[in-house]
């Protein structure tokens, strides 16, 4: 794998589309849903900074270190793509191993608990393991972001360790970073767990 190319990944609840400035207005509406940029333990962009954040991610894509997506809802009534609800990426791409980290993810507050996150992770993990041939996929989060840590653990990822005083947040404070991973031989069990979660949700909805 010399380079991961932009691609569209379609699931039951979301479509992951290659990020572009065409997603700007939808992403601004999404980030205002819950005022996510005010959460101190995350790096969610403010509405006024969305264009710059899109440009930043696309520049990293050009360098080959990131593949950014816009996350769009699928209308359950019609099966067609609907509103943009957030962003996610393959990041820190190692094309030699190959290995990717799934991160820089956020979704509108109203989408939390709706099945969109496990569906998105299922799409990205399946593509990483079954198409790109990664032997491992990594996740990282702030030590104090307990919601994120719990969500990653629910996926079936194992905690590798904690990088203490690893990086600085936007306000200059040093943060400890928790590192998780899923290995290739663990993927079938993780996939089955995600598919079961989504099936249970569909049954509740129906």
From TrEMBL:
Q: Where is the N-acetyltransferase domain?
A: 15-158
Q: Which residues form a coiled coil?
A: none
Q: What is the superkingdom listed in this entry's lineage?
A: Bacteria
> A single Pfam family, by name?
Acetyltransf_3
InterPro entries the UniProt entry points to:
Acyl_CoA_acyltransferase (IPR016181), GNAT_dom (IPR000182)
Q: What is this protein called?
A: GNAT family protein
Q: What is the protein's species of origin?
A: Arthrobacter humicola
């Amino acid at each position: 794998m010399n380079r991961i190319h932009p691609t569209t990944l379609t699931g039951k609840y979301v479509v992951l589309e290659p990020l572009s400035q065409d997603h700007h207005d939808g992403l601004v509406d999404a980030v205002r849903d819950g005022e996510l940029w005010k959460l101190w333990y995350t790096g969610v962009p403010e509405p006024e900074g969305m264009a710059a954040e899109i440009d930043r991610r696309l520049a990293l894509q050009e360098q080959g270190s990131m593949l950014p997506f816009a996350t769009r809802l699928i209308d359950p009534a019609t099966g067609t793509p609907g509103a943009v609800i957030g962003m996610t990426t393959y990041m820190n791409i190692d094309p030699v191993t190959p290995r990717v980290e799934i991160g820089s993810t956020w979704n509108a507050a109203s989408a939390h608990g709706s099945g969109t996150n496990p569906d998105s992770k299922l799409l990205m993990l399946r593509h990483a393991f079954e198409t790109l041939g990664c032997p491992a996929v990594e996740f990282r989060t702030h030590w104090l972001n307990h919601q994120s840590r719990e969500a990653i653990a629910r996926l079936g990822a194992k905690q590798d360790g904690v990088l203490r005083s690893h990086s600085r947040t936007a306000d200059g404070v040093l943060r400890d970073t928790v590192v998780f991973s899923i290995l290739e031989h663990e993927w079938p069990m993780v996939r089955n767990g995600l598919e079961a979660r989504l099936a249970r949700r569909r049954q509740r909805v129906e």
